[in-house]
Amino acid sequence: MPDNIDNTRVRELTLPNYPIGCDAKWLWPSILEDSLSVNLYDWLVDTGSLTARLKQYCQKFSVEILSEGNYALSDDEKTKLNLAEDLGFVREVLLKLDGTPWVFARSVMPLNMLTAPGGELDQLGNRSLGSVLFSAPDMQRSEIEIAAFDAQSKVYSLSQLFSSTPKTVLFGRRSCFLLNGKSLLVSEVFLPDASAYKE
User: Fold this and answer.
1) How would residue 35 be classed by pLDDT, with cut points 50, 70 and 90?
2) Cα–Cα distance measured from residue 163 to residue 49, given in angstroms and rounded to the nearest whole number
3) What is the CATH number of domain 21-197?
4) Mean pLDDT of 54-64
5) How many H-runs (helices) and E-runs (strands) does the chain carry?
6) Is the pTM of this model over 0.70?
7) What are phi and psi of 196, to 5 degrees?
8) CA distance 153 to 22
9) Strand ranges (E), the chain
10) What SS3 string covers 55-100?
11) How far is Cα 175 from Cα 98, in angstroms, rounded to an integer?
């Protein structure tokens, strides 16, 4: 259980089962651009390192692992990664700024990626995946897709456990990263306290 969740609220809300997943209707950014604020859209389509950008907004950046291991992937995730097998390595974390969760991140990769040279991505511990990806000289990134997460989604339910400023809907983005000839899929959902929602 995330270490900053209010125990009183936990009694009122149902804890989600881990892993959470990122099931959503993923769209090209241009489809939603006109309905989003300029600030939120900028955060969603920024192609730079999210970790580096977040660190500019806090004194202490930290990563809290929610779940990590071999789990079943969604059909959509298997399609994005061009995988036939059902299992992949899944890592779900909270990216926290001065103790406040700003981003829920889900990384999905083929099991054989973990044994590839430079593929020790199951040994990140409390380091962010972005710190590894954006330091890799041969890293390539696909185009970004974005999605809305409403009150019916598991990510939204998770955010209600620790957010002091709930939103009616959350937004996230995802893209594939090519590393050492293999693809991994990274999804990032901005939680209610993130600066992305400030006007």
Assistant:
1) very high
2) 24
3) 3.40.1410.10
4) 95
5) 7, 7
6) yes
7) -55, -30
8) 8
9) 61-72, 87-97, 100-109, 140-141, 145-149, 170-179, 182-190
10) HCCCCCEEEEEEEEEEEECCHHHHHHHCCCCCEEEEEEEEEEECCE
11) 26
